[in-house]
Write a structure and sequence with these properties.
The protein has 16 helices and no strands. It is an all-alpha fold.
Length: about 280
């Protein structure tokens, strides 16, 4: 996106953004190769060998484990909705309201993605130590609080960063130092935005999958996962735009993120945590 933003320049909105989307077919191929190369879990392999596979797993999981499906979807509220606010809505808000360049925002989001390359597996590792539910709930709480910090940094920059910029730029004009400080605040907000998300995303796959019986795990986890995309991820940028249009304050969006975090916190608390337990004995 950043490369074609430079190449297309003023034509980015007409055709420039389409090229990266078309090139993503390469990622589809890589993803398919990875999925076809991964071995089945020992539990599922045993179920196949014993011919205990459900013929209609979607119907069965809806009948037998509807609670887990709903809790899985609600648990993802704090992960899905803020993620698309931090990575999609921020472009409309940054360019339209803050008058920040699109390329600057792309660089900031790209930097945050690089950081996530480390924080997602780290969060997964920590969940093995302290428990998936504990790690997930900690991420939900952090997300609920961070929404307000995020928009505070975006809207004005922090005094600490302004002081730092002025201190480092003492030989520059005062207005340039303040200008730099505001941009540092915006960059810092976007750069750190995905860490609370990663605290949940790291343990999420195991946390949700372990909630379902082996014969229904794939279908159950998929239903919960995709239902969250419908109620949280998809509409999040639209809800954020509507809230800002109605209340003219980004803190209304932060309040929406807080509500999502509370829903996820409650849902995660109601889910079972199988960290360190032999789920094969219970669900085979």
């Amino acid at each position: 996106m950043l490369a074609f933003s430079q190449i297309a320049a003023d034509q980015f909105l007409s055709w420039g953004w389409r090229v990266p989307f078309l090139l993503s077919i390469i990622l589809v191929g890589i993803g398919l190769w990875i999925r076809l190369s991964i071995l089945e879990t020992p539990i599922f392999a045993r179920l196949v060998a014993e011919r205990r596979i459900e013929r209609t797993p979607i119907v069965e999981v809806i009948k037998r484990q509807p609670k887990e499906i709903i809790l899985s979807a609600l648990a993802r509220m704090a992960e899905q909705a803020p993620f698309y606010i931090f990575t999609a809505f921020v472009f409309a808000y940054g360019v339209g309201t803050l008058k920040v360049s699109r390329d600057f925002l792309l660089v900031a989001v790209l930097a945050a993605s690089v950081l996530s390359f480390f924080t997602i597996p780290l969060s997964g590792h920590l969940s093995d130590r302290i428990g998936r539910r504990n790690m997930y709930m900690l991420g939900a709480v952090t997300t609920g609080v961070f929404g307000f910090i995020y928009f505070a940094l975006l809207d004005s920059g922090s005094l600490a960063l302004i002081f730092l910029a002025i201190f480092l730029a003492i030989f520059l004009a005062i207005f340039l130092a303040i200008f730099l400080a505001i941009f540092l605040a915006i960059f810092l907000a976007i750069f750190l935005a995905l860490i609370p998300h990663d605290m949940m995303y790291g343990p999420q796959a195991a946390f949700i999958a372990e909630s379902f019986t082996g014969r229904l795990r794939y279908s159950g986890a998929s239903l919960g996962y995709q239902f969250a995309s419908v109620i949280a991820g998809g509409p999040a940028p639209l809800i954020a735009a509507w809230l800002f249009a109605v209340y003219h304050s980004a803190y209304a969006i932060a309040g929406y993120i807080l509500v999502c975090a509370i829903l996820s916190l409650v849902a995660a608390a109601l889910m079972k945590d199988y960290t360190g337990k032999d789920i094969a004995a219970e669900y085979a």
